[in-house]
UniProtKB/TrEMBL annotation:
Family: Belongs to the UPF0718 family.
Name this protein carries in UniProt: Possible permease
Residue ranges the record marks as coiled coil: none
Upper lineage: Bacteria, Bacillati, Cyanobacteriota, Cyanophyceae, Synechococcales
Membrane topology annotation: Multi-pass membrane protein
Organism: Prochlorococcus marinus (strain MIT 9313)
Length: 318
């Protein structure tokens, strides 16, 4: 009974912590769709393999939401036909590269200036790596099916045919190639779509929080922190802890402060880098964006990248 009570308390804490950021992300996506019609700015985003993810990552400065809030924004980018690199750069880097997270990192570790530079830089590099690998996959193997259909409807017939769109009449005349007048969607339509999106994501978030709470209750953290002084094992242990604990990127620096003195610098950085990209809470949310194969690639590559960064930091700091 004690473990169930602990699991229930952890579940409530995770859910109450994540819901405001999820709501913020859905609100940002809805406002962007209503105030600035997608065709007014999506077409201006760079499609260069390097510039696209850089642009997406830097968008995190203007959209201060944690990883839960970034999922609906990234979904709206993909659905609107934005370059894949831009959407993925935002999805993976913005949870760290935003003013709230940067400020919380500084507040938790004001005397460790290297961490204030290493965390955003590491998140930026991981986002570029993941974006570069994921865009190599065909969209049909990468993007979740309903999102892919929505994305194809927003792209011109010159790049996506009628059969690929899944809509339209074969043999029908092509639309006028001249650009049409941009129309702002009805506010009621935006509210309806945003509400539906919030409820869908909330269901997945609840599932992720249940799994995270159960794992945390039955897996003592002391097991992971017991190897905190070993250069490599400490990194692996803190990566596992980041996946299990599933805290929000806006507050994970304060949680890390509680065991920072017991682990190596590379392990501390690994905890702060991996959580916003791979954790049990995000596993469900990512299913509205990516297919299982792409989620698996994301998890494996992110873990390897964070492990390498942590090892390099330990060689440099120890």
């Amino acid at each position: 009974m004690d473990r169930l009570a602990t699991a229930w308390a952890i579940f409530q804490g995770l859910l109450l912590e994540a819901i405001p950021f999820l709501l913020l992300g859905v609100t940002i996506a809805g406002l962007a769709r209503w105030l600035v019609p997608q065709s007014a700015w999506i077409g201006r985003l760079p499609r260069h393999p390097l510039l696209a993810p850089i642009t997406g990552a830097l968008m995190g400065f203007a959209l201060p939401a944690c990883e839960c809030g970034n999922v609906p924004v990234a979904r709206r980018l993909l659905a609107s036909g934005a370059p894949l690199g831009t959407a993925f750069g935002f999805l993976f880097a913005a949870p760290v590269l935003n003013p709230i997270v940067l400020a919380s990192t500084w507040a938790a570790f004001p005397d460790q200036s290297w961490l204030l530079i290493a965390r955003p830089l590491g998140a930026f590099l991981i986002a570029l790596l993941l974006s570069a690998l994921l865009v190599q996959l065909p969209e049909a193997q990468l993007i979740e099916s309903s999102l892919l259909a929505e994305r194809r409807l927003s792209q011109p017939l010159s790049s996506i045919g009628l059969l690929e769109r899944g809509a339209g009449l074969i043999g029908a005349a092509l639309p006028d190639p001249q650009p049409t007048r941009i129309k702002r969607p009805q506010l009621s339509e935006v509210l309806e779509q945003s509400s539906r999106e919030f409820l869908d994501l909330l269901a997945l978030l609840v599932l992720g929080c249940v799994i995270a709470a159960l794992v945390q209750s039955w897996l003592p953290r002391s097991w992971l922190l017991a190897v905190g002084s070993a250069p490599t094992l400490s990194i692996v242990a803190l990566m596992l802890l980041a996946i299990v604990v599933s805290v929000c990127s806006s507050v994970d620096a304060f949680l890390a402060l509680g065991f920072a003195a017991q682990v190596t610098p590379g392990a501390l950085l690994a905890f702060l880098l991996l959580g916003p990209v791979v954790d049990l809470k995000l596993a469900g949310l990512f299913t509205v964006l990516l297919r299982p194969k792409a989620i698996g690639i994301t998890a494996i590559v992110a873990c390897l990248g964070v492990l390498l960064i942590g090892q390099w930091v330990n060689l440099w700091q120890l």
